[in-house]
Amino acid sequence: PLPAPEKVSMLFKLYCLVVMTVVAATYIIVLRYTRTMSSEKYFSTTAVFLTEVVKLIISLGMLSWYVFILEEVVYKKKETLKLCIPSLVYALQNNMAFVALSNLDAAVYQVTYQLKIPCTAFYMQWFSIFLLCGGVSLVQWKPMEATAVHVMATAVAVLCSGFAGVYFEKVLKSSSTSLWIRNIQMYLWGILMTFGGVVVNDGAAILQEGFFFGYTPLVCLVVLLASMGGLYTSVVVKYTDNIMKSFSAAAAIVLSTLASMYLFELHLSYIFIIGTTLVCISIYLYGLPQLENKNDSDKQELK
Ligand code: NCC
Questions:
Q1: Which of 180, 192, 199, 254 has its CA 20 to 30 A from that of 8?
Q2: How far apart are CA 204 and CA 166, in angstroms?
Q3: What is the pLDDT of residues 254-283, one digit of tens each?
Protein backbone atom coordinates (compact mmCIF):
# COMPACT_ATOMS: atom_id res chain seq x y z
CA PRO A 1 0.00 0.00 0.00
CA LEU A 2 1.15 3.50 -0.78
CA PRO A 3 1.70 5.89 2.08
CA ALA A 4 -0.34 9.09 2.15
CA PRO A 5 1.55 11.77 0.19
CA GLU A 6 3.56 14.11 2.32
CA LYS A 7 1.78 17.37 2.89
CA VAL A 8 3.87 20.45 2.25
CA SER A 9 2.76 24.03 2.29
CA MET A 10 1.79 25.97 -0.81
CA LEU A 11 4.62 28.37 0.02
CA PHE A 12 7.21 25.60 -0.09
CA LYS A 13 5.93 24.41 -3.47
CA LEU A 14 6.05 27.94 -4.83
CA TYR A 15 9.55 28.39 -3.44
CA CYS A 16 10.74 25.23 -5.24
CA LEU A 17 9.07 26.28 -8.49
CA VAL A 18 10.60 29.74 -8.31
CA VAL A 19 14.12 28.50 -7.56
CA MET A 20 13.87 25.88 -10.31
CA THR A 21 12.64 28.51 -12.75
CA VAL A 22 15.35 31.04 -11.96
CA VAL A 23 18.03 28.35 -12.14
CA ALA A 24 16.68 27.07 -15.48
CA ALA A 25 16.72 30.56 -16.99
CA THR A 26 20.25 31.24 -15.77
CA TYR A 27 21.45 27.81 -16.84
CA ILE A 28 20.40 28.21 -20.47
CA ILE A 29 21.94 31.67 -20.74
CA VAL A 30 25.26 30.73 -19.10
CA LEU A 31 25.48 27.47 -21.06
CA ARG A 32 24.93 29.34 -24.30
CA TYR A 33 27.49 31.95 -23.28
CA THR A 34 30.17 29.37 -22.50
CA ARG A 35 29.59 27.67 -25.86
CA THR A 36 29.81 30.83 -27.91
CA MET A 37 31.96 33.39 -26.15
CA SER A 38 35.14 31.61 -25.13
CA SER A 39 37.74 30.69 -27.68
CA GLU A 40 38.59 27.25 -26.30
CA LYS A 41 35.66 24.86 -26.39
CA TYR A 42 35.40 22.50 -23.44
CA PHE A 43 34.08 18.97 -23.93
CA SER A 44 30.39 19.30 -23.20
CA THR A 45 29.99 15.58 -22.47
CA THR A 46 32.29 16.02 -19.46
CA ALA A 47 30.03 18.76 -18.09
CA VAL A 48 26.98 16.50 -18.40
CA PHE A 49 28.90 13.69 -16.68
CA LEU A 50 30.17 15.91 -13.85
CA THR A 51 26.61 17.12 -13.26
CA GLU A 52 25.52 13.55 -12.53
CA VAL A 53 28.45 13.14 -10.12
CA VAL A 54 27.59 16.35 -8.26
CA LYS A 55 23.91 15.39 -8.04
CA LEU A 56 24.79 11.94 -6.72
CA ILE A 57 27.08 13.39 -4.06
CA ILE A 58 24.44 15.87 -2.91
CA SER A 59 21.72 13.19 -2.89
CA LEU A 60 23.97 10.90 -0.85
CA GLY A 61 24.50 13.74 1.56
CA MET A 62 20.74 13.72 2.17
CA LEU A 63 20.93 10.15 3.55
CA SER A 64 23.19 8.06 5.68
CA TRP A 65 24.57 6.69 2.51
CA TYR A 66 26.31 3.49 3.55
CA VAL A 67 23.09 1.96 4.95
CA PHE A 68 21.30 3.14 1.89
CA ILE A 69 23.71 1.64 -0.67
CA LEU A 70 23.25 -1.80 0.80
CA GLU A 71 19.54 -1.66 1.42
CA GLU A 72 18.29 0.26 -1.54
CA VAL A 73 20.72 -0.37 -4.37
CA VAL A 74 22.39 -3.73 -3.80
CA TYR A 75 19.45 -5.63 -2.28
CA LYS A 76 16.81 -4.07 -4.51
CA LYS A 77 18.39 -4.63 -7.90
CA LYS A 78 15.06 -4.73 -9.71
CA GLU A 79 14.03 -1.36 -8.31
CA THR A 80 17.39 0.16 -9.22
CA LEU A 81 17.07 -1.28 -12.70
CA LYS A 82 13.79 0.62 -13.26
CA LEU A 83 15.68 3.91 -13.15
CA CYS A 84 18.03 2.86 -15.90
CA ILE A 85 15.49 3.95 -18.53
CA PRO A 86 14.89 7.59 -17.51
CA SER A 87 18.57 8.03 -16.73
CA LEU A 88 19.48 6.95 -20.27
CA VAL A 89 16.85 9.25 -21.74
CA TYR A 90 18.00 12.16 -19.57
CA ALA A 91 21.64 11.47 -20.50
CA LEU A 92 20.70 11.81 -24.15
CA GLN A 93 18.56 14.88 -23.49
CA ASN A 94 21.20 16.68 -21.43
CA ASN A 95 23.83 16.09 -24.11
CA MET A 96 21.44 17.29 -26.82
CA ALA A 97 20.98 20.56 -24.96
CA PHE A 98 24.71 21.22 -25.35
CA VAL A 99 24.66 20.20 -29.03
CA ALA A 100 21.68 22.45 -29.70
CA LEU A 101 22.82 25.43 -27.66
CA SER A 102 26.32 25.33 -29.11
CA ASN A 103 24.86 26.43 -32.39
CA LEU A 104 21.30 27.53 -31.89
CA ASP A 105 20.23 30.88 -30.56
CA ALA A 106 19.05 30.51 -26.95
CA ALA A 107 15.70 32.07 -27.83
CA VAL A 108 15.05 29.75 -30.77
CA TYR A 109 15.99 26.79 -28.59
CA GLN A 110 13.66 27.81 -25.83
CA VAL A 111 10.73 28.34 -28.17
CA THR A 112 11.19 24.99 -29.85
CA TYR A 113 11.71 23.38 -26.45
CA GLN A 114 8.25 24.38 -25.34
CA LEU A 115 6.87 21.69 -27.63
CA LYS A 116 7.55 19.44 -24.68
CA ILE A 117 4.49 20.85 -22.97
CA PRO A 118 1.86 19.33 -25.27
CA CYS A 119 4.18 16.36 -25.49
CA THR A 120 3.99 15.85 -21.73
CA ALA A 121 0.38 16.75 -21.27
CA PHE A 122 -1.66 16.00 -24.33
CA TYR A 123 -4.45 14.68 -22.17
CA MET A 124 -4.63 17.67 -19.90
CA GLN A 125 -6.17 21.08 -20.18
CA TRP A 126 -5.67 21.85 -23.83
CA PHE A 127 -6.84 25.40 -23.81
CA SER A 128 -4.36 26.70 -21.29
CA ILE A 129 -1.63 24.64 -22.91
CA PHE A 130 -2.27 26.15 -26.35
CA LEU A 131 -2.32 29.60 -24.84
CA LEU A 132 0.99 28.93 -23.17
CA CYS A 133 2.69 27.62 -26.29
CA GLY A 134 1.32 30.52 -28.30
CA GLY A 135 2.35 33.03 -25.69
CA VAL A 136 5.85 31.67 -25.30
CA SER A 137 6.38 31.57 -29.04
CA LEU A 138 5.23 35.16 -29.46
CA VAL A 139 7.53 36.30 -26.67
CA GLN A 140 10.63 35.05 -28.38
CA TRP A 141 9.69 34.69 -32.00
CA LYS A 142 12.50 35.27 -34.45
CA PRO A 143 13.06 33.93 -37.94
CA MET A 144 14.71 30.55 -37.82
CA GLU A 145 18.40 30.64 -38.57
CA ALA A 146 19.28 27.14 -37.53
CA THR A 147 20.45 24.10 -39.33
CA ALA A 148 18.45 20.89 -39.32
CA VAL A 149 20.91 19.13 -36.99
CA HIS A 150 20.40 21.60 -34.19
CA VAL A 151 16.67 21.65 -34.57
CA MET A 152 16.86 17.84 -34.44
CA ALA A 153 18.93 18.04 -31.24
CA THR A 154 16.26 20.26 -29.71
CA ALA A 155 13.52 17.92 -30.87
CA VAL A 156 15.30 14.94 -29.29
CA ALA A 157 15.68 16.91 -26.04
CA VAL A 158 11.96 17.77 -26.13
CA LEU A 159 10.86 14.18 -26.65
CA CYS A 160 13.27 12.95 -23.97
CA SER A 161 12.20 15.57 -21.45
CA GLY A 162 8.51 14.68 -21.71
CA PHE A 163 9.09 10.95 -21.59
CA ALA A 164 11.73 10.80 -18.85
CA GLY A 165 9.80 13.29 -16.72
CA VAL A 166 6.58 11.30 -16.82
CA TYR A 167 8.46 8.03 -16.31
CA PHE A 168 10.33 9.33 -13.28
CA GLU A 169 7.15 10.77 -11.77
CA LYS A 170 5.38 7.44 -12.22
CA VAL A 171 8.18 5.42 -10.60
CA LEU A 172 8.48 7.96 -7.78
CA LYS A 173 4.77 8.15 -7.00
CA SER A 174 3.93 4.48 -7.37
CA SER A 175 5.89 3.30 -4.36
CA SER A 176 6.89 4.50 -0.94
CA THR A 177 10.59 4.70 -1.85
CA SER A 178 11.85 8.18 -1.03
CA LEU A 179 12.79 10.84 -3.54
CA TRP A 180 16.45 10.80 -2.56
CA ILE A 181 16.69 7.05 -2.96
CA ARG A 182 15.05 7.26 -6.38
CA ASN A 183 17.42 10.06 -7.31
CA ILE A 184 20.47 8.11 -6.19
CA GLN A 185 19.33 5.07 -8.14
CA MET A 186 18.91 7.23 -11.21
CA TYR A 187 22.15 9.21 -10.87
CA LEU A 188 24.18 6.00 -10.49
CA TRP A 189 22.88 5.01 -13.91
CA GLY A 190 23.28 8.58 -15.06
CA ILE A 191 26.99 8.51 -14.27
CA LEU A 192 27.40 5.33 -16.27
CA MET A 193 25.38 6.59 -19.25
CA THR A 194 26.97 10.00 -19.42
CA PHE A 195 30.43 8.51 -19.06
CA GLY A 196 29.52 6.45 -22.13
CA GLY A 197 28.83 9.76 -23.86
CA VAL A 198 32.23 11.14 -22.81
CA VAL A 199 34.08 8.08 -24.13
CA VAL A 200 32.17 7.64 -27.38
CA ASN A 201 31.99 11.27 -28.38
CA ASP A 202 35.16 12.84 -26.99
CA GLY A 203 37.30 9.92 -25.75
CA ALA A 204 40.10 10.29 -28.27
CA ALA A 205 40.31 14.08 -28.00
CA ILE A 206 40.23 13.95 -24.20
CA LEU A 207 43.21 11.60 -24.19
CA GLN A 208 45.14 14.32 -25.99
CA GLU A 209 43.79 17.49 -24.39
CA GLY A 210 42.67 16.30 -20.94
CA PHE A 211 39.28 15.93 -19.30
CA PHE A 212 39.09 19.50 -18.08
CA PHE A 213 40.32 21.14 -21.29
CA GLY A 214 38.71 24.55 -21.78
CA TYR A 215 37.14 24.65 -18.30
CA THR A 216 36.65 28.15 -16.92
CA PRO A 217 34.85 29.27 -13.75
CA LEU A 218 31.78 29.87 -15.93
CA VAL A 219 31.82 26.27 -17.16
CA CYS A 220 31.92 25.14 -13.52
CA LEU A 221 28.93 27.41 -12.96
CA VAL A 222 27.08 25.61 -15.78
CA VAL A 223 27.72 22.27 -14.04
CA LEU A 224 26.58 23.71 -10.72
CA LEU A 225 23.43 25.22 -12.19
CA ALA A 226 22.64 22.01 -14.03
CA SER A 227 23.02 20.07 -10.77
CA MET A 228 20.92 22.46 -8.73
CA GLY A 229 18.34 22.67 -11.49
CA GLY A 230 18.12 18.88 -11.72
CA LEU A 231 17.72 18.42 -7.97
CA TYR A 232 15.09 21.15 -7.72
CA THR A 233 13.32 19.61 -10.70
CA SER A 234 13.05 16.35 -8.78
CA VAL A 235 11.64 18.10 -5.70
CA VAL A 236 9.15 20.02 -7.84
CA VAL A 237 7.98 16.81 -9.53
CA LYS A 238 7.58 15.16 -6.14
CA TYR A 239 5.39 17.87 -4.67
CA THR A 240 3.56 19.01 -7.81
CA ASP A 241 3.72 17.34 -11.22
CA ASN A 242 5.36 17.52 -14.62
CA ILE A 243 2.84 19.94 -16.03
CA MET A 244 3.30 22.41 -13.22
CA LYS A 245 7.04 22.09 -13.81
CA SER A 246 6.66 22.85 -17.51
CA PHE A 247 4.56 25.92 -16.85
CA SER A 248 7.10 27.19 -14.43
CA ALA A 249 9.96 26.57 -16.84
CA ALA A 250 7.99 28.43 -19.49
CA ALA A 251 7.78 31.40 -17.18
CA ALA A 252 11.58 31.22 -17.23
CA ILE A 253 11.47 32.19 -20.87
CA VAL A 254 9.61 35.35 -20.10
CA LEU A 255 12.05 36.03 -17.27
CA SER A 256 15.14 35.40 -19.35
CA THR A 257 13.81 37.56 -22.16
CA LEU A 258 13.20 40.34 -19.68
CA ALA A 259 16.73 39.81 -18.33
CA SER A 260 18.28 39.98 -21.78
CA MET A 261 16.24 43.07 -22.56
CA TYR A 262 17.72 44.68 -19.52
CA LEU A 263 21.24 43.37 -20.12
CA PHE A 264 21.35 44.01 -23.82
CA GLU A 265 19.10 47.06 -23.77
CA LEU A 266 16.44 45.58 -25.98
CA HIS A 267 13.07 47.28 -26.12
CA LEU A 268 9.77 45.73 -25.12
CA SER A 269 7.63 45.01 -28.15
CA TYR A 270 3.86 44.66 -28.29
CA ILE A 271 4.31 41.06 -29.33
CA PHE A 272 6.31 40.43 -26.17
CA ILE A 273 3.65 42.00 -24.00
CA ILE A 274 0.88 39.97 -25.67
CA GLY A 275 2.95 36.81 -25.36
CA THR A 276 3.68 37.42 -21.69
CA THR A 277 0.01 38.02 -21.01
CA LEU A 278 -0.90 34.74 -22.70
CA VAL A 279 1.70 32.91 -20.64
CA CYS A 280 0.35 34.39 -17.42
CA ILE A 281 -3.26 33.60 -18.31
CA SER A 282 -2.39 30.02 -19.18
CA ILE A 283 -0.55 29.54 -15.89
CA TYR A 284 -3.56 30.95 -14.08
CA LEU A 285 -5.99 28.76 -16.04
CA TYR A 286 -4.03 25.61 -15.41
CA GLY A 287 -4.57 26.63 -11.91
CA LEU A 288 -2.13 27.69 -9.31
CA PRO A 289 -4.99 26.85 -6.90
CA GLN A 290 -4.59 23.24 -7.96
CA LEU A 291 -1.19 23.24 -6.35
CA GLU A 292 -2.90 23.31 -3.00
CA ASN A 293 -5.46 20.64 -3.88
CA LYS A 294 -3.12 18.20 -5.51
CA ASN A 295 -2.16 16.33 -2.35
CA ASP A 296 -5.78 16.09 -1.27
CA SER A 297 -6.88 14.51 -4.53
CA ASP A 298 -3.92 12.11 -4.37
CA LYS A 299 -5.14 11.05 -0.95
CA GLN A 300 -8.63 10.49 -2.31
CA GLU A 301 -7.28 8.28 -5.06
CA LEU A 302 -5.40 6.18 -2.57
CA LYS A 303 -8.44 5.50 -0.45
O1 NCC B 1 13.75 19.69 -19.59
P2 NCC B 1 13.48 19.20 -18.24
O3 NCC B 1 13.38 20.42 -17.17
O4 NCC B 1 12.31 18.30 -18.07
O5 NCC B 1 14.79 18.43 -17.75
C6 NCC B 1 14.86 17.85 -16.49
C7 NCC B 1 16.28 17.99 -15.96
O8 NCC B 1 16.28 17.59 -14.59
C9 NCC B 1 17.17 16.51 -14.37
N10 NCC B 1 16.51 15.62 -13.39
C11 NCC B 1 15.24 15.17 -13.56
C12 NCC B 1 14.66 14.34 -12.61
C13 NCC B 1 15.40 14.00 -11.48
N14 NCC B 1 14.90 13.21 -10.51
N15 NCC B 1 16.66 14.46 -11.32
C16 NCC B 1 17.23 15.27 -12.26
O17 NCC B 1 18.39 15.68 -12.10
C18 NCC B 1 17.42 15.88 -15.73
O19 NCC B 1 18.71 15.30 -15.78
C20 NCC B 1 17.27 17.08 -16.67
O21 NCC B 1 18.49 17.78 -16.74
C22 NCC B 1 12.04 22.24 -18.11
O23 NCC B 1 10.97 21.74 -17.72
O24 NCC B 1 12.13 23.04 -19.06
C25 NCC B 1 13.34 21.83 -17.40
O26 NCC B 1 14.42 22.27 -18.24
C27 NCC B 1 15.73 22.04 -17.72
C28 NCC B 1 16.77 22.60 -18.70
O29 NCC B 1 16.55 23.98 -18.87
C30 NCC B 1 16.60 21.94 -20.05
O31 NCC B 1 16.70 20.54 -19.91
C32 NCC B 1 17.68 22.46 -20.99
O33 NCC B 1 17.67 21.76 -22.14
C34 NCC B 1 15.88 22.68 -16.36
N35 NCC B 1 17.18 22.27 -15.86
C36 NCC B 1 18.07 23.10 -15.40
O37 NCC B 1 17.87 24.27 -15.29
C38 NCC B 1 19.39 22.54 -15.03
C39 NCC B 1 14.80 22.20 -15.40
O40 NCC B 1 14.95 22.85 -14.17
C41 NCC B 1 13.43 22.47 -16.00
A1: 254
A2: 35
A3: 776 777 666 656 566 777 777 777 777 776
Q: Is 157 exposed, middle or buried (0-12, 13-18, 19+ CB in 10 A)?
A: buried
- Calpha distance 156→75 (Å, rounded): 34
Is residue 126 domain-resident? yes
Is position 1 within any domain? no
Return d(Cα 80, Cα 194) in angstroms, integer: 17
Atom number, ligand 1, closest to the C-alpha of residue 162: 4
Ligand 1, atom 13, residue with closest C-alpha:
234
Is 43 within the bounds of a domain? yes
Residues spanned by the domain of 45? 10-302
Ligand 1, atom 37: closest residue by C-alpha: 24
Q: How many domains does the chain have?
A: 1
Residues near 128 by Cβ (< 8 Å), separated by ≥ 6?
A: 281, 282, 283, 285, 286
Cα separations in angstroms, 120 against 40, 145, 245: 37, 27, 11
The residue among 92, 102, 97 whose CA lies nearest residue 146 is: 102
* Ligand 1 atom nearest 186 alpha carbon: 14
For residue range 132-176, list pLDDT tens digits in order: 676 666 666 554 455 666 667 777 887 788 888 888 999 999 888
